[in-house]
Design goal:
Number of helices: 15
Distance between the termini: 39 Å
Number of strands: 19
Largest sheet: 8 strands, antiparallel
Length: 479
């Protein structure tokens, strides 16, 4: 009697997918496994299968669902870091969309049709050839599918809303293998929940995104001493306050500790979206003493150069609070305490930690509404906020589980408790930054949770993407 694994592999071969099916005895299997950028995601599935088009995705879903008890994962870029995030699986088959890549620009509509396995560095290079741009990921190797179904913070939230707000049509393979379109006039309920609803409804095989005129950017970096932390916080608050009136810039405010270092440093990554040097919104950052480097470039070149190296065991987590200098300072203090705790648990200092502040402005909600809205529940954001993400990279899974993850969890709890004491805690969690213990879908609010549950029951009545795709954040588990 065949095992479930054997039956699943046989079913895929019978469906005509043997030439893109890789099992553990093949070199191609190890190549796909090693292509995950962090060790945390390198599970050992029964097989990887790489569809080349939508029809093959449909065949794969039918073939796997036909095998009772067979579970599977779906990978676009595979950038989420925690085991169980949905981009790989230990006991099942991983559908790897890496061969489904490419971008087609349609000048008559101004839309770019983007395949889910594409990486943003390639998407930008493709659309720039036509003098246009899309609002997508900010790191070169991030995949299209995960970023957009998780919401998508981009360089352009201040102008156009979230990445998912730019999608005007989805092509989706449902749990029964059928292929549907979802947009503002067809399957409108599915269209709405795909904008931030993660992997709960189907496999998106094409994103049709609105484009806008491309222009060169003025982009740079400033490396600053931690002695200037208070100045950096003041500059961050000034930037956030200015951005609502002058939607012309993007900033990542990063506090970084590198392996074997003695202390951390601050790195401000700043971008003038219109290519204007030293714009008013960035002035406070630029005035802080530091090692600066800036140039005029393109989004495609910037993103191609901005890649976080890892190949280690990573853990990320996130929180959101209202813009307040006291909480920003508390967060930095907690970060510094975290570093001391990690140094005790990892005496050789062989670890990396990144703490990043990013704006989430109340005014951005209107950008989303103007484009049909999304399921993120941002109507609850009535004051300007800060999205915080902290990530740690360590050398072994044991250090990740016993040292870095508990320490980060403790830090975030302290920050959230302090924000709550000031009445400044915000429920929203950005899904793409969450760890496995967090519940971003719940943070979207009861109304949107109900919409997602109804859409799940309507478009996936047998629960394929709730039961057969166990990874990720499941709407069926939100009470």
């Amino acid at each position: 009697m065949e095992s479930i694994a054997q039956s699943a592999i046989s079913s895929l071969k019978k469906a005509g997918l043997g030439d893109v099916l890789y099992t553990p005895d093949q070199q191609a299997y190890e190549a796909r496994r090693e292509s995950y950028w962090v060790f945390s995601s390198r599970a050992r599935p029964w097989a990887f299968v790489q569809p080349r088009n939508t029809d093959e995705v449909s065949k794969i879903v039918k073939a796997l669902v036909a095998i009772e008890g067979c579970k599977f994962a779906i990978r676009s870029g595979g950038h989420m870091t925690h085991a169980g995030s949905g981009n790989n699986i230990e006991d099942g088959v991983t559908i790897d969309l890496g061969l489904m890549k490419g971008t087609t620009y349609h000048p008559e509509t101004g839309l770019a049709s983007i395949l889910p396995g594409s990486r943003w560095r390639d998407v930008y290079a493709d659309v720039e050839k036509h003098g246009v741009m899309v609002a997508g990921g900010r790191e070169g190797v991030v995949g299209v599918g995960g970023l957009l179904t998780g919401g998508g913070i981009t360089y352009y939230n201040c102008r156009y809303g979230w990445g998912c707000d730019q999608v005007v049509n989805y092509e989706v393979v449902l749990g029964d293998g059928s292929v549907v379109e979802a947009n503002a006039t067809t399957n409108t309920d599915l269209f709405y929940v795909l904008k931030g609803g993660h992997n709960n409804f189907g496999i998106v095989t094409r994103f049709d995104m609105q484009t806008f005129k491309d222009c060169r950017i003025w982009d740079g970096s400033s490396v600053i001493s931690p002695a200037c932390t208070n100045q950096v916080i003041e500059a961050y608050i000034d930037f956030s306050n200015s951005l609502a009136k002058n939607a012309d810039s993007h900033v990542l405010t990063m506090f970084i500790f590198l392996p074997f270092a003695q202390e951390h440093f601050i790195n401000i990554l700043f971008t003038s979206l219109d290519g204007v040097e030293n714009p008013r919104t960035l002035q406070k950052f630029i005035e802080i003493p530091g090692q600066k480097d800036a140039k005029t470039t393109t989004v495609a070149k910037k993103v191609a150069e901005f890649i976080f190296p890892s190949r280690r065991y990573d853990s990320w987590t996130t929180t959101t609070f209202k813009l307040d200098h006291r909480i920003l300072r508390k967060t930095v203090d907690a970060f510094e305490a975290l570093l001391e705790e990690l140094k005790k648990g990892i005496p050789d200092n062989d670890f990396c930690v990144n703490l990043v502040f990013q704006p989430l402005l109340a005014s951005w909600t209107q950008n989303s509404i103007d484009r049909g809205g999304n399921v993120l529940g941002l109507e609850q954001i009535t004051e300007d906020c800060v999205v915080v993400v902290i990530g740690a990279e360590v050398a072994t899974v044991e250090l990740s589980e016993k040292v870095s993850k508990p320490a980060i969890s403790k830090m975030i709890s302290e920050v959230e408790s302090y924000a709550t004491s000031l009445g400044k805690k915000v429920d929203f969690l950005y899904l793409n930054y969450c760890d496995g213990s967090q519940d971003p879908l719940r943070s979207y609010g009861e109304e949107n949770v109900e919409k997602m549950k109804k859409a799940s029951m309507k478009y996936d009545p047998t629960g394929v993407f709730q039961k057969r795709v166990p990874g990720g954040y499941k709407i069926s588990k939100v009470n």
